[in-house]
Amino acid sequence: MTALAGIIAARIRATGPITLADYMQTCLLDSRHGYYATRDPFGAAGDFTTAPEIHQLFGELCGLALGQAWMDQGSPAPCLLAEPGPGRGTLMADMRRAIRVVPGMTEAAQIALIEASPHLRQLQRDRLGPVLHLDRIEDLPPKPLFLLANEFLDALPIRQFQMTGEGWRERMVGLDAEGRLAIGLGPVVDLPRKGQPGEIVEDCPAAVAATEAIARHIARHGGAAILVDYGGWDGRGDTFQALRRHAPDDPLAHPGEADLTAHVDFAPLAAAAVRAGAAVSRMGRQGDWLLALGAEARARRLAQAGDAGAMVALRRLTHPEEMGHLFKTLAIWPKGAPPVPGFEALIH
Q1: What are the DSSP calls for 117-134, one per residue?
Q2: What's the rounded Cα separation, in Å, for the pair 55 and 53?
Q3: Which helix (H) or strand (E) holds 324?
Q4: pLDDT tens digits, one per residue of 157-187
Q5: What separation in angstroms does the CA of 102 have from each of 97, 108, 115, 152?
Q6: Is 85 helix (H, G, I), strand (E, B) or coil?
Q7: Residue 303 CB-density burial (10 A; 0-12 exposed, 13-18 middle, 19+ buried)
Q8: What is the number of H-type helices and E-type strands within the chain?
Q9: CA-CA-CA-CA dihedral for 96, 98, 100, 106, to nearest 10
Q10: Residue 190 half-sphere exposure, CB side, CA atoms within 13 Å?
Q11: At a CB cut-off of 8 Å and minimum separation 6, what does 31 contact?
């Protein structure tokens, strides 16, 4: 049992079972024992590898896409180049380097990072130098916002509901007969959706709220946002999962020592962007988007210049059997502005 498992178990004994959202929030962000508060989980030495850690190709193309969106909107200055959940700053470093070829953007853009972990904030400052650190998306200054969110939404806390003979009941974290953490069912809840007996659905209010805040900012002040994550459209089923030392893990086995995530449902995120008054794209696939931006040509140029890993990285990032189809993309921009490069508008 980890230190955090004992703390969570004591809380459950005192006040009763907790939601999966409470469990995820505690495991990831507890100030003393939380996963992101205590470690650098990225790369070969950590628990997982994200697209920016695979190769500079990903961050460069993301930066150039935002740079083109900036020019398409008249090169507003000043503006924000922002990232929520920026890890150790690898993606932002690559984007910042890429926009040097966009005339005037480097001088116009203030780097803004939305980060809850003090430990990761320090890693980001070490990598990027002085930046604007914020606790919440809602705290962004009122300037045009050019934002990239990569594998940010999947770590936001979810709730799960299971259809039973009595109706929908929330899946909760409680204790089994031996005092170990276990999933059980709470009381019947009023959930306005249909389901088959045994079916599980997930809800992520935090992802909807974050997307709506981003879209509202862009609708008011201009800018563009690109969301990249694994998931689908109007998804169902149990996708709650843990990763530890680059291998799947039981989400209840090592609280505070494993990454907890769930697949992102992009349908309510697109609806949230529309409610906020912004334009939104069709959901796409990471591989298709990167190839549309010229990923293959860029990788070949890097390979010809001596980068032996460029073509291998291209496959990992774009191939259907690698990250290409698993990871999805969604873009947000102001109504009336050109779409973000590589995206088509979702027609409502």
Answers
A1: -HHHHHHHHHHH-S-EEE
A2: 6
A3: none
A4: 999 999 999 999 999 999 999 999 999 999 9
A5: 10, 11, 27, 26
A6: coil
A7: middle
A8: 13, 17
A9: -30
A10: 0
A11: 37
| Distance in angstroms between the alpha carbons of the first and the last residue of the chain | 50
Residue in this structure with the two tokens 């200054």, named with its chain if needed: 141
pTM of the model: 0.95
* Residue ranges in the chain whose pLDDT is less than 50: none
What per-residue confidence (pLDDT) applies to 45? 60
What is 223-242 written as a DSSP string? EEEEEEEEEESS--S---EE
**How many other C-beta atoms are found inside a 10 Å radius of the C-beta of residue 345?**
15
Q: Which residue has the tokens 């799960």?
A: 160
Q: Which residue has the tokens 């990454």?
A: 259
Edge-to-edge strands, sheet with 259-261: 247-249, 241-244, 259-261
> Which residue matches tokens 């398409």?
72
Q: Which two tokens stand for residue 346?
A: 């979702």
**Do 153 and 269 form a contact (C-beta atoms < 8 A)?**
yes
CA distance 229 to 234: 14
Return the SS3 of 111. Answer: strand
How far is Cα of residue 92 from the mean position of the Cα atoms in its chain? 14
| Token pair of 74 as six digits | 């008249």
What is the C-alpha to C-alpha distance for residues 1 and 158, in angstroms, rounded to an integer? 23
The total of other beta-carbon atoms located within 10 Å of residue 245's CB is 12
CB 340 within 8 A of CB 281: yes
Q: Which of 77, 204, 79, 108 is CA-nearest to residue 152?
A: 204
What tokens appear for 39 in the block? 């470690």
How far is it, in rounded angstroms, from Cα 84 to Cα 93?
14
